[in-house]
Design brief:
The complex is a heterotrimer. By secondary structure, chain B is mainly alpha-helical. Chain B is 75% helix and 4% strand. The chains are: A alpha/beta, B mainly alpha, C mainly alpha.
Chain lengths: 423, 283, 275
């Protein structure tokens, strides 16, 4: 009798024994694609983070791959989607979240978020950063390398022009006043501009201006642009005036030229990414400071940078990928990545960590970037927004160069953009 | 029998490879051009000629065609002429001739990303080398890349700079192969160098010139790298060439079916142009 | 043609002036490679670096696996070159020296392949490679370039220029077909073969786009990918590192060109008509 009971108990225990080898199986392999957008040394930083993750998680093995810049990363993802070779996790620019979601490449994360604490998990991030992580009511991305625009100004030039070097302009009016004093003219030629607003493919500073004036540039459903609404027209008018009325700003500054011209003393103020701080520290030989993007009616810098999206569909890989994505956004890692890269630390708690405090002590201007985060706004985007973005870019260039009348050209651009998005 | 088969066997390796890696993709692309594949249609859906109709109806497409025509019809003759002139000039034992030839070939060898970055610096309006030199001779600065009337010409200049070395090389090789006896005879006859060149050398170089023209056409696609890095088609689509338009619609706007149609159009135009050139040269 | 001395000198100086203009960007590149980052963005151009600082080269080399990339670039470029020479000379031989049915059509087709750019082919080729299971491996970098319409064309031109009489004479000596190709056609077309080699070498050595698309592992990636890491979209480029890296990427090609370009100079021997 006893031996039979023993036998049955042994049998009941056997499934457990069988599962033990399964648990000690091969680690889940994950592929992680990342664009490095701030220079070559950062690839090492990413590799360091990934290798630490692998050491701390014996059951997961992440292989990181550098995939060029944001554009080429998108191309690789598109090719991979067609060929069925998508990576498990990849970082892409925030405005591509809707299109990657609608193509069925990126996968929704809501179930995984719920399992990790739902709202409580999401609360670790700056709310403004979460604005560009969703599509159609679902969450697809986790903030990873994020930035906002910020104003770099030449403190020495301020002092020389009779301005307080510790008080950068906070409003549009103050900006005009400061820029007028800072612009150095040599007859007809301008040897130093007052302020430069570089323009690039994502039209960041247009949004900075429209948000600062309380405007919205894209309808809530993402199908119509609103550039012809009064607040947005005013914003573009302000930019136009800087160039053509007050003549303190050049009509077109390519994106990369901004920090370079600032370092070379060709402009006293330049608006650029928070990510350019490292460049400034390395190359600027005069005293410089950071200021918030000035407001007209409200502070509202637009968001920028990249999010981590998941492409894996297999449940086992999804769980592993989620472990990776959450680990990378834990406070210590977020702080580490921010310090190495110059991107903003996405985890609110990481700003209180000793290493971040040390950074702030050494570079107090970093606090300005933190100050802007509560007011930051989303980057306007939708699944079909890309052609509209290019139309906006051309509009701004033409208006600022006085090649097109502001109101009429804007109305025409709105019509073209809406048509392009409807295709 | 074996002798009859031989030529087919000789062309087979090349032809098979070309078929797999060049022709098949073209067929694939033509097929794709008849489908809609974008954010609202993630699975390819047959639409027949709709993409082509949309292409012809797009005013930007015609603008881009115009830009591409200007770019092609300037860079091709200019870079070939420059290459030929240099080949003729350097086809003799000159002091530091080897060094000079290397200098002229260096732009060809330079990776595009580096060449584009240096070009961006040289042509910067506010502190670039070009405007600095203009300033030295008392001229006002020029907005080389940021003025929509000028940018295309700057890109053209860079295109010529990057490719003329190829043609110098090709013509140097061809000049090597010219029958010396004929040229010697003409020289002994007392013909002037200029006349000798035009009535003897130039006609003998015709096959090379034909070939160079076709190659120049292909090389004009390289402009994509410069546009992508330096201007992204701007300002205001003034440097948007067909090669970039395709990329823009395929990989920035995610409209793969439409982009495929424009790629097929580009291939058709390039092929037609090549056929016209070939007929003209081989008459 | 030999010019009179005065003309020669004038020509020489004209060439020197042009060379200076063409070389100016290169000069700037070389000088920047020796500058520290903040020396580059000065209000007026600084023609000379403060010192010969090799630090940029070291830092650039260490930013990515350049040693590995170098080996891969050499291996891949040479493999492509050899395959292209082999397939092109065979095909060019048939197209230039043999009459056969479909010769015209095949020639026509080769011209067609000549003008198909990478933007057209890459997507399909990527999917093809995935079917073969070759993604992220050496075959992915080499196979799509195994044949060259360009090379086939160039060699056909060169082979056409060799007189038939030569082939008849060779046949009498028992040298026919492929032997003739190897012993006569190719040596006689040496300048053309060299021209093609130089062009193909540079094209594949500098190819950034294709290797980036089809490879993920550092172990098989090539030099231009390392170079691209210094160029960014969101901030500004790591100038001095990019220039330093460019130099060690471009140097091998320049060295190869410098040592082979002497073949393109008229020597005292007449080419082609002597055996």
């Amino acid at each position: 009798m006893n031996s039979r009971r023993e036998f049955v108990r042994l049998l009941a225990a056997m499934p457990m024994a069988w599962t033990v080898p399964a648990i000690a199986a091969e680690p889940v392999p994950l592929s992680f694609w990342y664009p490095v957008d701030l220079g070559g040394g950062l690839a090492k930083a990413v590799d360091g983070l990934v290798s630490d993750f692998n050491k701390a998680h014996a059951d997961i093995q992440v292989t990181p791959t550098y995939t060029g810049n944001y554009d080429v990363t998108l191309q690789k993802i598109q090719a991979a989607k067609l060929a069925g070779t998508l990576p498990d996790v990849a970082v892409t620019e925030i405005s591509s979240v809707p299109v990657l979601a609608s193509l069925g490449a990126a996968q929704p994360l809501d179930d995984l978020i719920a399992a990790s604490g739902g709202r409580q998990f999401l609360d670790r991030f700056w709310p403004s950063m979460l604005l560009n992580c969703g599509y159609n009511g679902k969450v697809y991305g986790v903030p990873f390398q994020r930035s906002t625009p910020v104003m770099y100004y030449n403190k020495d030039a301020f002092a020389a022009a009779g301005l307080d070097p510790e008080k950068p302009p906070q409003t549009w009016g103050e900006l005009i006043g400061a820029a007028q004093k800072l612009t150095v003219r040599d007859g007809e030629r301008i040897t130093r501009w007052g302020v430069e607003l570089p323009l690039e493919a994502f039209d960041w500073f247009y949004y900075a201006l429209t948000y600062s004036n309380g405007g919205q540039t894209l309808s809530a459903d993402g199908t119509k642009v609103l550039w012809d609404q009064p607040k947005n027209i005013e914003a573009l008018q302000f930019w136009y005036d800087l160039v053509n009325k007050y003549k303190v700003t050049p009509p077109y500054t390519p994106w990369n030229d901004g920090p370079q011209e600032f370092a070379a003393g060709k402009t006293a103020i330049v608006w650029h990414s928070t990510g350019s701080q490292a460049f400034m520290r390395q190359n600027v030989k005069f005293h410089w400071g950071l200021g918030r993007i000035p407001k007209n009616t409200q502070f509202g810098p637009p968001s920028g940078g990249g999010n981590m999206l998941m492409y894996a569909t297999d449940p086992g890989r999804r769980r592993a990928a989620w472990t990776f994505m959450t680990w990378m956004s834990d406070a210590p890692q977020a702080a580490r990545w921010s310090i190495a890269s110059g991107y903003l630390a996405t985890n609110i708690a990481s700003w209180d960590l000793p290493e971040m405090q040390a950074l702030i002590k050494e570079h107090p201007e970093v606090l300005v970037t933190k100050e802007q985060l509560p007011d930051a706004k989303a980057e306007p985007t939708s699944a079909k927004y890309a052609p509209a973005r290019d139309i906006l870019n051309s509009l701004i260039k033409d208006v600022l160069a006085n090649k097109a009348p502001l109101k009429a050209a804007t109305e025409q651009a709105v019509a073209s953009a809406n048509a392009a998005m409807a295709q | 029998m074996k002798a009859r088969l031989a030529p087919y066997l000789y062309v087979l390796p090349a032809l098979a490879m070309l078929a797999l890696w060049n022709y098949y993709p073209l067929v694939f692309l033509v097929d794709l051009s008849f489908h809609k594949l974008d954010a609202s249609s993630p699975v390819p859906a047959w639409v027949g000629l709709a993409n082509y109709r949309a292409l012809l109806a797009d005013p930007l497409f015609w603008r881009v065609l115009g830009n591409t025509a200007v770019y092609t019809f300037v860079t091709v003759p200019v870079s070939i002429a420059l290459g030929l002139a240099l080949a003729v000039a350097l086809n003799q034992r000159l002091l530091v001739g080897g060094l000079l030839r290397t200098v002229f070939y260096t732009p060809v060898v330079l990776p595009t990303v580096a060449a584009a970055t240096v070009a961006l610096w040289i042509f910067n309006t506010n502190y670039g080398l070009a405007n600095y030199l203009l300033e030295l001779i008392g001229q006002p600065p020029v907005a080389w890349l940021t003025d929509s009337g000028r940018a295309l010409w700057t890109i053209i200049a860079i295109g010529v700079w990057k490719t003329f070395g190829y043609f110098m090389l090709v013509y140097l090789a061809a000049l090597q192969a010219l029958p010396q006896a004929v040229l010697e005879a003409a020289r002994l006859d007392g013909a002037r160098p200029w006349d000798r060149f035009w009535s003897i050398t130039w006609p003998l170089l015709r096959p090379t010139t034909w070939f160079a023209t076709v190659i120049a056409l292909i090389l004009s696609f390289q402009s994509f790298d410069f546009i992508n890095i330096m201007t992204q088609g701007g300002p205001s689509n003034s440097t948007n060439l067909l090669v970039f338009y395709i990329y823009q619609h395929g990989f920035q706007y995610f409209q793969l079916g439409f982009a495929a149609a424009s790629a097929v159009a580009m291939f058709g135009l390039a092929y037609g142009l090549t056929a016209v050139i070939s007929t003209w040269f081989n008459r | 043609m030999k010019l009179p001395p005065l003309r020669r000198i004038a020509l020489f100086f004209a060439l020197l002036a042009l060379a200076a203009l063409v070389a100016m960007p290169m000069y700037w590149l070389v000088v920047s490679a020796f500058k520290t980052s903040d020396e580059i963005f000065t209000p007026t151009p600084r023609w000379l670096p403060a010192g010969l600082d090799w630090h940029n080269f070291v830092e650039a080399w260490q930013s990515a696996a350049f040693g590995r990339y170098f080996i891969n670039s050499i291996a891949v470029t040479l493999a492509i070159l050899l395959l292209q020479l082999a397939t092109s000379s065979l095909a060019a031989f048939a197209l230039a020296r043999r009459r056969f049915a479909c010769r015209g059509i095949i020639l026509f087709a080769v011209i067609g392949a000549l003008i198909i750019p990478i933007q057209v082919t890459f997507l399909a080729n990527f999917i093809t490679l995935q079917h073969f299971g070759w993604l992220d491996s050496y075959p992915a970098l080499v196979a799509p370039f195994a044949a060259s319409a360009f090379g086939t064309f160039l060699l056909r031109q060169a082979f056409l220029a060799v007189p038939e009489a030569l082939e008849d004479a060779a046949r009498l000596d028992g040298c026919t077909g492929l032997a003739f190709l190897w012993h006569f056609l190719l040596p006689l077309s040496r300048p053309t073969v060299l021209a093609f080699t130089l062009v193909a070498l540079v094209a594949h050595w500098n190819d950034y786009f294709w290797p980036l698309i089809v490879t993920n592992r550092d172990a098989i990636r090539t030099l231009p990918i390392g170079l691209a890491m210094f160029v960014t979209q969101e901030v500004t480029t790591d100038w001095n590192l990019l220039m330093a890296a460019t130099l060690f990427v471009a140097a091998p090609m320049l060295v190869v060109f410098f040592f082979t370009q002497r073949y393109f100079i008229r020597s005292h021997m007449h080419a082609g008509l002597k055996r």
